């Protein structure tokens, strides 16, 4: 059975189209009304004479809050003063039977604003720091005054009001603060250097207040609004401007002020009836030196710059302690010195990778659970989980370094053997860390064999899979090394009797061209000249591609094509397969172990010799 929308349960089609973005269209009346939203709470809204502040004040009052409508009544650039703006909003609130008082103080005199709340209503519960001015000028033209004034209102103003409200919040064990930042701060904006800096300052202020207030039930969050307001009217195009109603943002801010909202230290962006969360992420980065005593040269930085700036596995750190902890791990690693035979890499697995792999190993459309991310049984084919380790190895030089002697050509690198064991089904979406370590190097005469153990960990640090990748370097043997290894996991012979079952499937001539898109970009499989250096008349198919076909055949025959019944396998790639050739998988069942052997029909060569363990579970192996 298919679920209509597995991954994006309860979200609108538009949300689903935003796949991956953290956010949601804000739905007006769909949800049950929150009865106690802010009833009886005392809220101070600065800059509430117009625009966003006014919308916040009106909504909070409508939901039963007692509101201090603060507005200095100044112009957009901070000049002038008037009581009219605040008075008008207070009248509006009162005309709807709401409770409000006006306050005309500058936010720089924050204590006076808070005093207004306390003397009118006896307390303060909510503080929305919304007041702001603009003094836009390109950086070269910004005067000290332009800088100081913008900072005084936005950053110092928020500091002063919050400083005055803080003791009240602490005493009563409750407080909700909203800081107003801007995409000008998060992303920068031409002509707004002063404003951008102040807005980012508010993010920093909120981050720390969230930490310091947490124990006392004081939450501080940031709203990043894009609204039609005095500040934006001549900046945004008119048709866009019309859709940026402050009323569409007010509920988001009201929810941030609500006692049921547990967010603290969040940055919430909102505009045009949409809201989303922003945060700062950091790349996995790269250690720039080998040992603890080493200096770091500019060349070290240059050589590792790709890894330093690779954001594909970037992550959010919850706290400064987490960031420091990671630093300690780095120091630990550097102290232990380099491990020339070890690497680790984190991949960001997506449903798309899983589906592409399934397609690249000939999965028919009838196996929808391998091809459709919204299928209730959607999962990856077992051999998919080998791919990450193989790609990590292909990108590193640990295998080449492990072989004695120079002149190792990658054209002579063949996938020799493969072991895989899955402990827990890894998630099809999310980070997967692979840790690869050279286990042994063998001298097979005609070639050198490098055995690499690969452990895969999910985002919780759980070891979900183990694989052993054995590569065969043709012509790199005879270096006087050992021939066998206690570390090698060996395949067993298939039974002598006739196979219990057989499945045939033709690969197509583009098979390698498609398969390489799953990650193994080895030119051996696509470039005839490169393949010729390795002694091939044409590019051979990836070993893992043939294996993907074979494992699917076994699952189809014995496990209703359910990869979750798979436990482990060991194979040897005995002969190459070429795209377009037909694979025939012969299978023998012995309890929950299925032996299989795959032949190339055209050449009659055994191309994969192996055994495969399937876990026997209820309704499992037939
Ligand atoms: C960096 C990431 C790592 C992984 C990278 C993979 C990247 C991919 O892009 C590459 C690929 O997918 S290549 C395609 C898939 N692989 C193949 O087609 C290889 C097929 N196998 C062969 O051609 C031969 O077995 C051949 C050529 C391998 C060996 O044949 P011979 O030289 O004739 O060897 P033989 O005389 O039969 O045996 C000599 C000793 O070697 C052992 N041996 C044989 N085949 C082996 C194999 N496939 N793997 C491991 N060991 C193997 C034999 O057992 C023998 O040793 P001993 O005498 O000790 O038993």
TrEMBL record:
Family to which the UniProt record says this protein belongs: Belongs to the short-chain dehydrogenases/reductases (SDR) family.
The keyword Lyase is annotated on this UniProt entry: yes
Chief site of localization: other
Pathway the protein contributes to: Lipid metabolism; fatty acid beta-oxidation
tRNA-binding among keywords: no
Stored PROSITE patterns: ADH_SHORT
Keywords: Fatty acid metabolism, Isomerase, Lipid metabolism, Lyase, Oxidoreductase, Peroxisome
The protein's name: Peroxisomal multifunctional enzyme type 2
Subcellular location: Peroxisome
Domain (Ketoreductase) ranges: 41-234
Species in which this protein is naturally found: Cloeon dipterum
InterPro entries: HotDog_dom_sf (IPR029069), KR_dom (IPR057326), MaoC-like_dom (IPR002539), MFE-2_N (IPR054357), NAD(P)-bd_dom_sf (IPR036291), Peroxisomal_Beta-Oxidation (IPR051687), Sc_DH/Rdtase_CS (IPR020904), SDR_fam (IPR002347)
Taxonomic path: Eukaryota, Metazoa, Ecdysozoa, Arthropoda, Hexapoda
SMART domains named in the record: PKS_KR
Domain of life: Eukaryota
UniProt-recorded Gene Ontology molecular function terms: 3-hydroxyacyl-CoA dehydratase activity; isomerase activity; oxidoreductase activity
């Amino acid at each position: 059975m298919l679920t209509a929308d597995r991954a994006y349960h309860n979200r609108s089609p538009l949300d689903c189209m935003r796949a991956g973005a953290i956010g949601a269209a804000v739905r007006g009346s769909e949800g049950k009304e929150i009865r106690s939203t802010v009833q009886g709470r005392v809220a101070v809204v600065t800059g509430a004479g117009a625009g966003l502040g006014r919308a916040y004040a009106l909504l909070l009052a409508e939901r039963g809050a007692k509101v201090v409508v603060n507005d200095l009544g100044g112009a957009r650039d901070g000049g002038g003063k008037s009581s009219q703006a605040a008075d008008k909003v207070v009248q509006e609130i009162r005309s709807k039977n709401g409770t409000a008082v006006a306050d005309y103080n500058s936010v720089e005199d924050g204590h006076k604003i808070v005093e207004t709340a306390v003397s009118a209503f006896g307390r303060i519960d909510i503080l929305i720091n919304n007041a702001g001015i603009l003094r836009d000028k390109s950086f070269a033209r910004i005067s000290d005054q332009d800088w100081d004034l913008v900072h005084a209102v936005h950053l110092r103003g928020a500091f002063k009001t919050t400083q005055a409200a803080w003791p009240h919040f602490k005493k009563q064990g409750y407080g909700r603060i909203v800081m107003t930042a801007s995409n000008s701060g998060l992303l920068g904006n031409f002509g707004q250097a002063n404003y951008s800096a102040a807005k980012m300052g508010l993010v920093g202020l909120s981050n720390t207040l969230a930490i310091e207030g947490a124990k006392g039930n004081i939450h501080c969050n940031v709203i990043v609004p894009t609204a039609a307001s005095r500040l934006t009217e001549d900046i945004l195009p008119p048709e866009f401007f019309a859709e940026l109603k402050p009323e569409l943002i007010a509920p988001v801010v009201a929810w941030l002020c609500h006692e049921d909202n547990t967010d603290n230290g969040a940055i919430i962006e909102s505009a045009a009836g949409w809201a989303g969360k922003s945060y700062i992420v950091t790349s996995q980065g790269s250690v720039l030196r080998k040992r603890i005593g080493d200096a770091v040269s500019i060349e070290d930085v240059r050589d590792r710059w790709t890894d330093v700036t690779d954001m594909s596995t970037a992550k959010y750190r919850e706290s400064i302690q987490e960031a420091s902890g990671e630093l300690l791990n780095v120091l630990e690693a550097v102290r232990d010195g380099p491990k020339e035979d070890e690497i680790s890499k984190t991949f960001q697995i997506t449903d798309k990778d899983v589906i592409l792999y399934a397609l690249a190993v000939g999965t028919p459309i009838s196996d929808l659970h391998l091809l459709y991310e919204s299928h209730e049984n959607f999962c990856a084919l077992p051999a998919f989980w080998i791919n990450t380790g193989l790609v990590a190895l292909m990108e590193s030089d640990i295998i080449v370094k492990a072989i004695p002697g120079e002149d190792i050509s990658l054209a002579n690198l063949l996938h020799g053997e493969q072991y895989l064991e899955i402990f827990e089904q890894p998630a099809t979406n999310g980070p997967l860390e692979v840790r690869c370590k050279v286990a042994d190097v063998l001298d097979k005469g005609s070639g050198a064999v490098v055995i690499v153990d690969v452990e895969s960990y999910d985002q919780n640090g759980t070891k979900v899979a183990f694989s052993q990748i054995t590569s065969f370097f043709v012509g790199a043997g005879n270096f006087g090394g050992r021939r066998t290894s206690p570390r090698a996991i060996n395949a067993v012979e298939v039974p002598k009797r006739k196979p219990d079952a057989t499945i045939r499937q033709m690969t197509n001539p583009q098979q390698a061209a498609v398969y390489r898109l799953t990650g193994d970009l080895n030119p051996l499989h696509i470039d005839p000249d490169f393949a010729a250096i390795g002694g091939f008349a044409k590019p051979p198919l990836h070993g893992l591609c043939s294996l993907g076909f074979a494992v699917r055949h076994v699952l189809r025959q014995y496990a209703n094509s359910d990869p979750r019944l798979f436990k482990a396998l060991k194979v040897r790639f005995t002969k190459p397969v070429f795209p377009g050739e037909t694979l025939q998988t012969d299978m023998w069942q012995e309890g929950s172990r299925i032996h299989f052997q795959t032949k190339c029909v055209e050449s009659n060569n055994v191309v994969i010799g192996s055994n495969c363990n399937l876990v026997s579970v209820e309704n499992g192996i037939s």
